[in-house]
User: Which sequence fits this backbone?
């Protein structure tokens, strides 16, 4: 059996030019920029289709053709994404041959082509997303976007500022039998559906737009992750917040209804300035729940609060450019300038 590998969300970090033309609007008072005239037209590169068309009896010649067509992606795919990490001596030819001859990979591709043989809808969604991306990040090139099969290794990744990728095998529905529940629990598998494709790619963009968190306190981490969510919100302004958070609609409603209570809980438990990650880990990392906030609180609810703080800051300081926002590293000063006031429970 081909060895499953957990491949990082972002293959290589990139540095994004971060000058933005304007701030994103508040949820209840959106003034979305007009991006209709921005010349973006995303046409997906179907790498996985080209890969599975290779003649396995003449694989070297086919790989040379793929290298010509995908000079950046193919080496990364062969040497990193599908490389057997338990065998450091494995060559790209061996890796590709093993991958294409694995029955489970062959059947996985069949399933993907049945579901996603036509991705015209995704091209439309990503075209709109990258129109916003070009508006807010005007110095960045419009990237090429390729689709791959990674055998459950990566959902979205960025190789450079001009090449992004989506692993289609991570969007086959939460009940797809190939997802090992010990590796992918329920709250993770829930996000393995088609509507999450642009969300995961936007999160990869946001993640790579950020440097490391400036501190280890809960407040530092909340604001760091909140700024990432703010970028996602700029790129996908009409996407429901529940999808941006990976929540069910019930979880999203409960989170919004308990905003004030969660903030009060964090303060009363002296967590805001704590550096004890074991105490607040579930507030800021993917988790089935975060009962320290309230009994039914979903994981990452602290990131959602950080996002609300960032939006409060930008509402009070709408002249702030994204470069200034992301470089504002003093979390305490940022919190004070935001004058954040959580909404009362309805």
Assistant:
């Amino acid at each position: 059996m081909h060895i499953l590998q957990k491949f990082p969300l972002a293959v290589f970090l990139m540095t994004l030019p971060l000058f933005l033309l304007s701030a994103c609007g508040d949820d209840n008072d959106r003034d979305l920029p007009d991006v209709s005239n921005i010349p973006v037209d995303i046409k997906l590169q179907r790498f996985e289709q080209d890969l599975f068309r290779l003649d396995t009896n003449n694989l070297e010649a086919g790989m040379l053709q793929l290298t010509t067509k995908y000079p950046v992606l193919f080496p990364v795919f062969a040497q990193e994404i599908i490389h057997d990490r338990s065998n450091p001596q494995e060559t790209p030819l061996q890796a590709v041959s093993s991958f294409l001859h694995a029955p489970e990979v062959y059947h996985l591709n069949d399933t993907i082509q049945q579901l996603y043989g036509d991705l015209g809808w995704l091209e439309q969604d990503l075209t709109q997303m990258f129109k916003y991306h070009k508006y807010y990040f005007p110095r960045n090139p419009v990237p090429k976007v390729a689709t791959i099969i990674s055998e459950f290794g990566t959902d979205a990744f960025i190789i450079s500022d001009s090449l992004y990728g989506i692993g289609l095998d991570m969007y086959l529905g939460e009940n797809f039998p190939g997802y090992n529940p010990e590796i992918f629990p329920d709250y993770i598998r829930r996000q393995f559906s088609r509507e999450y494709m642009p969300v995961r790619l936007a999160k990869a963009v946001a993640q790579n737009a950020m440097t490391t968190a400036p501190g280890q306190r809960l407040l530092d981490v909340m604001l760091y992750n909140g700024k990432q969510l703010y970028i996602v919100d700029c790129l996908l302004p009409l996407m429901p917040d529940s999808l941006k958070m990976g929540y069910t609609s019930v979880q999203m409603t409960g989170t919004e209804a308990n905003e004030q209570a969660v903030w009060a809980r964090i303060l009363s438990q002296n967590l805001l300035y704590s550096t004890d990650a074991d105490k607040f880990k579930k507030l800021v990392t993917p988790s089935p729940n975060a009962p320290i906030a309230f009994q039914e609180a979903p994981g990452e609810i602290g990131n959602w609060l950080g996002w609300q703080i960032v939006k409060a800051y930008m509402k009070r300081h709408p002249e702030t450019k994204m470069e200034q926002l992301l470089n504002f590293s003093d979390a305490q000063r940022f919190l004070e300038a935001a004058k954040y006031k959580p909404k009362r429970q309805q």
